[in-house]
Design brief:
alpha+beta; Jelly Rolls; 2 domains; eight-stranded antiparallel sheet; 4 helices; 20 strands; globular; AL/BT2_dom; hydrolase activity; 3-keto-alpha-glucoside-1,2-lyase/3-keto-2-hydroxy-glucal hydratase domain-containing protein
């Protein structure tokens, strides 16, 4: 773990904190019950640590390690847990009450889609088939309904740079051609750049060039580098580095102890537990699934710093990308052939 916790500076910068998060994750062994109290403590601590993306990501990463696959164990559990707690406490300027979340941006306000505009292939900023709507009561609360009938998305009016985005979603029952019998599919696109529809050369595509946090049965938390076009026909793509291993079939899978590689041009980085037997079929569930079964609510957090993007599904860190070439842009929630309900879209500036 490097320097003893007691000798670490009281406050570390964002870059230093971020650099420690993934290596620390690798020390834990999965399914150790003695880690659960620490996990709870760290989740409580995350809002005391100066509110930075790095602190939040560090706390959540460590807390979720009790449920994450791990690759290394180089220290005794008791000594390791003590060191980690001392390290985290050394960062906190005292332990004030949990930070007030008064600066949250409710991109879904529970009433309408006023934070977004719609975009669909062929229909562009019109929605004649009501692909996007607000339903008054889904499991007792209002929610955005995305029918999936046409490909496109709801796009934020504003651009965002550094934040923690919390999206709560569950699948509906309706699917549409050409994905009627395929895995339910959607996604959250961040750092969207360029003109609407630029994933198509004639700007009639469904989305914008961006970095996608995938939402698909069996693959929630994958990263995709979504390409797009400029008016002169130049094709552009975001780039991002991720530590990876190759699975049985030679696909890239996120592993914090793996080999760093730059991904671009439509590359996908599978989440850490993606089943190599994944098939594109309705209702697919892998052997180590973190996503809840269809019909149950999931929480996807996307923690965005300038040098790092972290996907957290239901409290588990499932993917981390480093040094993204895009660091700012709009946010899109996709319509991609499957009905999906979204009851929460909250953005916390600066990752608080």
């Amino acid at each position: 773990m490097g320097a003893p916790a007691a000798s670490l500076p009281r406050r570390l910068g964002l870059a230093a904190l971020a650099a420690r998060a993934d290596p620390l994750s690798a020390y834990f062994v999965p399914h150790n019950e003695h880690l659960i109290p620490l996990a709870r403590l760290l989740l409580q601590l995350q809002y005391t640590l100066e509110g930075s993306n790095g602190c939040t990501m560090l706390a959540v990463s460590l807390a979720s390690c009790a449920r994450m696959p791990a690759t290394l164990m180089t220290n005794s559990p008791a000594r390791l847990l003590t060191s980690v707690v001392v390290f985290l406490l050394s960062l906190a300027p005292g332990l004030p009450a949990a930070a007030q979340e008064t600066n949250v941006v409710h991109l879904f306000n529970g009433k309408d889609l006023s934070s977004f505009y719609t975009w669909l292939v062929n229909d562009h900023r019109t929605d004649p088939d009501k692909v996007f709507s607000v339903v008054d009561n889904v499991d007792g609360a209002p929610a955005i309904r995305i029918s999936g009938q046409k490909f496109g998305g709801i796009t934020t009016h504003e651009e965002y740079e550094t934040y923690r985005l919390v999206v709560e979603f569950r699948w509906g029952t309706v699917t549409w051609k050409p994905r009627t019998s395929r895995a339910r599919d959607s996604g959250v696109l961040i750092h969207c750049q360029g003109a609407d529809g630029n994933t198509g050369k004639t700007f009639n595509g469904p989305w914008m060039r961006s970095i996608e946090a995938q939402i698909i049965e069996g693959g929630v938390g994958d990263f995709l580098m979504v390409q797009g076009y400029e008016p002169d026909g130049t094709r552009l793509s975001p780039e991002m580095t991720a530590s990876h291993i190759l699975d049985r079939d030679g696909e890239f899978v996120y592993d914090p102890a793996g080999t760093p590689r730059v991904f671009r041009d439509g590359n996908r980085i599978n989440w850490s537990g993606r089943d190599p037997d994944w098939t594109d079929r309705l209702g697919y569930r892998g052997a180590h699934e973190v996503e809840k079964p269809a019909g149950e609510w999931n929480q996807l957090e996307i923690v965005v710093a300038r040098d790092r993007i972290t996907n957290i599904l239901n409290g588990v860190v499932v993917n981390v990308g480093l040094h993204p070439s895009y660091t700012r842009g709009k946010i899109i929630i996709q319509s991609e052939g499957a009905e999906i309900y979204v009851r929460r879209v909250d953005l916390y500036p600066d990752g608080r």
